[in-house]
Amino acid sequence: MEQQKTQEELEKREMERIYRAILRAAADKVNSDDKKVIRKAYNLAVDAHSDMRRKSGEPYIYHPLEVALIVAKEIGLGATSIVAAFLHDVVEDTDYTLEDIDRLFGEKVARIIDGLTKISGVFDQNISLQAENFRKMLLTLSEDVRVILIKLADRLHNMRTLGSMPAYKQLKIASETLYIYAPLAHRLGLYAIKSELEDLG
Question: I need a labelling partner for 71 at 20 to 30 A (CA). Which of 39, 145, 155, 170 fits?
Fold first, then answer.
């Protein structure tokens, strides 16, 4: 029991550490109102994912937090994107609906999350489109480029933590990354992310 408590404390501390790093990374892009909305999204994501764990055994919430950190620190996006990154798996994986997100965080955030969910849906169908056509489709699917940028951040964090996946899954995700995501990052001028995706792939 004592050990479990200590583990929970450590996990809470880690969540807060990442959260503070996000705020530091976005300091020049967010005002006090933005910070309130970011905190509200953080609290909702922590609550929504509270019982979920990743394959590695760590709390699932680390994933959306790390994606938000990549979005803020490595891509340089602002409050709306950070909020969407926190919430990017909430509609897909929990009881929250797009309508809930719209009501709580506004249409812009809901639209980005809708775009992210649609892109995930396309992947799950295992369509074997040519990579180039697929990239074009991704770009047209999302009228908001932030959808693609958050998806790239999502993929980058998944690649960084690929070790806990079974080998066949690692191969599938790595080849998708090399054919679709790395060239997409290149096209959007995210050269450091492109290089890291290629190295990890």
Answer: 170
Residues belonging to the active site: 92-93
Which tens digits make up the pLDDT trace of 90-132?
998 899 999 999 999 999 999 999 888 877 766 655 555 566 6
Give the burial class of 46: count Cβ atoms within 10 A of its Cβ; 0-12 exposed, 13-18 middle, 19 or more buried: middle
Q: Give the predicted TM-score (pTM) of the model.
A: 0.87
Rounded distance, CA 108 to CA 126, Å? 29
> What DSSP state is assigned to residue 28?
T
Backbone torsion region of residue 76, taken as left when φ is above 0, otherwise alpha when ψ lies between -120 and 50, otherwise beta: left
Helices 32-48 and 98-105: crossing angle in degrees, nearest 10, is 150
